[in-house]
Amino acid sequence: MKFLHLTTLAGVALAVPAELSSRQTCSSPKLRKSWSKATAAEKTAYINAALCLVTKPSKLRVSTHTSLYDDFSYVHAALTRQIHSYAVFLPWHRYFVQVYENALRECGYTGTAMYWDWVADSAAPSRAAVWDPVLGFGGNGVNSGDNGPRKRVTDGPFKNLRPTYWNSDVQPHWLSRDWVPGDASSGRIEISGHEYTPAIMASINSETKYDDFRQRLENGPHAAVHGGVGDPLFFLHHTQVDRLWWLWQQQNPSARTMAYEGTRPLPDGLAGPPATLNDPLLMAGLASDGVVRDYMDVKGGKLCYTY
């Protein structure tokens, strides 16, 4: 990585990467809040905008009778082999959350993406505010008899939601959710809370290299929440993942804001050459394709928010 010049902080000379020092910083970053700390009005506005996406026509038109809400599920599933298990995992999902936030604004939303701080709730995830039946996303699914083998969510504002896709296949179904149960005898907490405790996150945050941090976060807490919830509470979950990456970056901003390493996937999903900041962030028609370097800094490039 090239270095442009030295600046001083408390009398210590610090090398500033050229990629970082030459970037413009946004002047009024918007704050992304934890769901548990948002007001009732903020939660209601977010929920209403998310429901509004179901009424918006699909931009992709991959299948008939699909909505803008369905587009997000389809794109994530269609690109899964190119956006997971590689360096691009974190910046791609950072951009994806931003595209979702922009879509919410098309529905009149004036707030920002919010996150579920599952680290703070790891001791009792099933009691988290995100599951509230009025100001949340409803609770666990039940065997309703009308959703095939899947447990249907029967409370909350999304109880009548019928997603079109299961992965990238057209399989209309009621919104489903299946929490992994706990087991007191083995110390296993419901929704796999034992896999994303503060102690585990502290250990992951001790990693000093980007790809070591990325692999442990992706394969550990990120995967545990997806598997533990079942449906995943996708965007609140991935905004939390983005926040945790941001917190890691903030430990050493001059070195970590543009820190990026690992492997780039080939179009078939197999491992390719070393990753670079010029690698693409594919959006499959949902939005314009991006470039990694524009999504490394939440207050620079194409972004302007903070946590």
UniProtKB/TrEMBL annotation:
Signal peptide stretch: 1-15
Keyword check for Metal-binding: yes
InterPro entries: Di-copper_centre_dom_sf (IPR008922), Tyrosinase/Hemocyanin (IPR050316), Tyrosinase_Cu-bd (IPR002227)
Keyword Cell cycle attached: no
Domain Tyrosinase copper-binding residue range list: 84-101, 231-242
Any Pfam family the entry gives: Tyrosinase
UniProt GO MF annotations: metal ion binding; oxidoreductase activity
Keywords: Copper, Metal-binding, Signal
Name of the protein described by the UniProt record: Tyrosinase copper-binding domain-containing protein
